[in-house]
Amino acid sequence: ERVRSIAGLIAFALHADKPEDAARAAYLAKADLRTQMVGEFPELQGIMGEYYALHDGEPKDVALAIREHYQPRFAGDALPSTLISISVAMADKLDTLAGMFGIGQAPTGEKDPYALRRHAISVLRMLIEKKLPMKLSRLVNLAYEVERHVPGVSDFREELLSFFYDRVRVMFKDAGYSAQEIDAVLTLRPDIVMDIPARLAAVRAFEAMPESAALASANKRISNILKKVDGEVPAEVKSELFEDEAEKALFDAINAVAPSAEADFKAGKYEEMLKALSALKAPVDTFFEKVMVNAEDPALRANRQALLAKLHSLMNQVAELSKLAK
């Protein structure tokens, strides 16, 4: 019943043609485990379920989902082929993950008796390789809404989300990305995980730019300055408070780059966005060379902090570039 509920909710969220078919497939997905055929040949689980469902007149997508909901069974295995099958496969794995985390049975060290790491990687592979624009937090929340009614289950959401991002880290380290590159992207905890490969590729392209080292170092410096600010940094930069030409030059450069950079980010053109930041190197260098951010005048100081916060926000949408500083 839990898997049935989660599968229907996921299918609805993914805009599958018939979400009710995902719920039906989930309801029938384990029925073949009761048969003597699967009892004698366990490797036929799911396969026999498809045959039984078709024999009983179930819709083809329901029967296929019964067969495919175990996928991927191992690293490199094929993924479920339809949104209905994906919904049931995700629900099956999320029920196990959410249930075990909810009763405090997360993997520890090398021990993972319920294959929770494999389940998490399977969910991530479906989101990434099938390019599903569903938020990871929404999936976890859907599972929580179903699992929380089980006696003894506590709120596991934050711990499970962290577990997913740890698995992402391992996946892309194995794919050849450096710890710095992965850290730069995952510090932002992108909720749409299908975007992570594009973000990582953009970070790698950014690193190849001659301006990247200086911009990453400046970004780290800005992060450190903003962390030490007491109270709120003003949201608005007041150009009338500029005293140095370097302040105005940086402000103008940010305003010149921002519109196209923001448009590229919204369009998922992450490499283009980061490449556009190269235009900021010279004004940023000049600003730090000529301007004292922590001026004695509180109004000047707050305005310079606001200017840096505006720059920081623009630069760190794809990844936390300070993580790339050597």
Written description of the protein model:
With about 325 residues, the chain is an all-alpha fold. Helices cover about 60% and strands about 0% of the residues. It is built from 16 helices and no strands. Helix 6 packs across helix 8 and helix 11 packs parallel to helix 14 (about 270-275). The longest helix is centred in the C-terminal third of the chain and has 22 residues, at about 245-265. It is elongated and about 85 Å long. The N and C termini lie far apart (about 50 Å). The model has no long low-confidence stretch (mean pLDDT about 95).
How would you summarize what this structure contains?
The protein has 326 residues and is an all-alpha fold.
Throw out a few tags for this protein.
single chain; 326 residues; mainly alpha; 16 helices; elongated
What's the layout of helices and strands?
Blueprint: H1 2-13, H2 19-28, H3 36-40, H4 47-55, H5 60-68, H6 83-102, H7 116-129, H8 136-147, H9 157-174, H10 179-186, H11 196-207, H12 212-227, H13 245-266, H14 270-276, H15 281-290, H16 298-315
Q: Class by helix and strand content?
A: mainly alpha
Please state the average pLDDT score.
Answer: 95
The proportion of residues forming helix, as a percent range, comes to: 55-70%
Number of helices: 16
